[in-house]
Structures are given as structure tokens and as C-alpha cells.
């Protein structure tokens, strides 16, 4: 798993590459939390995430709670159909702004 961070205006963009599982979710959370603390608007580009385990869902929930506690927002972009279905069935999809493209995700946080 690898995370690349960029900035577009006041929105931070974190592009995640690889699998988010029990081993990598704590590492992802450790890298993403400081970004969320620095800005209230974060887009997680998950178009290169091939697998998301329950530990990954927990990590996303922690990010969501941190963001809402600070009156911020987290948008998810590029979710695979499998991940989108899992998040929908577990009720996690409703917590986030969800878009197919990065530009649409940025617009959802404007």
C-alpha cells in the first residue's frame, strides 16, 4: 500500500494504491490522520485500491468521525463496484461524498 498526497486549493487529495487490510489499515490511518488535521476537506482517491477489508472500513470510519468532529468532509472517488457494494451493504457509503471521478469529488467538497 502506498499513499501519495497532493493539494488542490484548500482540498487535500490522498491517492491510495494497493490493498487496505488488517496489516495496512493502521499504516494508512497513521498517514491520513495528519492530513485531516491540517485541512477539513480531504478526497481519498481509491481508484487503485484493489481490496478493502473490515479493518479498512474501520479506518474509514475513524477518518469520517475525525472529519465531522472538526466540521470537515471526506470524499471517496474511484471506488470499485465490489468495494462500493460492500460499503453500501454495511451502511458506510452514506457517511461519505462518493464520486466516480476526482473532479466530481472535488466539486462535492466545494
Describe the structure.
With 110 residues, the chain is of the alpha/beta class. The protein has one domain (2-109): STAS domain (Transcription Regulator spoIIAA). 44% of the residues lie in helices and 34% in strands. The chain is built from four helices and five strands. Strands 1-2-3-4-5 form a five-stranded mixed beta sheet, with helices on both faces. Strand 4 (73-77), helix 3 (81-90) and strand 5 form a beta-alpha-beta unit. Helix 1 packs parallel to helix 2. It is globular, with a radius of gyration of 12 Å. The N and C termini lie far apart (28 Å).
Task: Give the name of the CATH superfamily.
Answer: STAS domain
Give the count of helical stretches. 4
CATH fold group: Transcription Regulator spoIIAA
List the quaternary state of the chains: single chain
What is the first-to-last residue Cα distance? 28 Å
Assess the beta-strand content as a share of residues.
25-35%
Q: What CATH first level would be assigned?
A: Alpha Beta
Largest sheet: 5 strands, mixed
Q: What form results from the Cα inertia axes?
A: globular
Order of helix and strand elements from N to C terminus: EEHEHEHEH
Estimate the helix proportion, in percent. 40-55%
Amino acid at each position: 500500500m502506498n499513499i501519495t498526497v497532493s493539494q488542490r486549493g484548500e482540498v487535500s487529495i490522498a491517492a491510495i494504491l494497493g490493498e487496505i487490510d488488517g496489516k495496512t489499515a493502521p499504516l494508512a490511518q497513521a498517514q491520513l490522520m495528519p492530513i485531516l488535521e491540517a485541512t477539513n476537506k480531504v478526497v481519498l482517491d481509491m481508484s487503485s485500491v484493489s481490496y478493502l477489508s473490515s479493518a479498512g472500513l474501520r479506518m474509514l470510519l475513524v477518518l469520517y468521525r475525525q472529519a465531522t468532529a472538526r466540521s470537515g468532509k471526506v470524499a471517496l472517488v474511484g471506488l470499485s463496484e465490489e468495494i462500493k457494494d460492500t460499503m453500501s451493504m454495511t451502511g458506510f457509503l452514506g457517511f461519505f461524498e462518493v464520486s466516480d471521478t476526482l473532479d466530481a469529488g472535488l466539486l462535492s467538497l466545494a
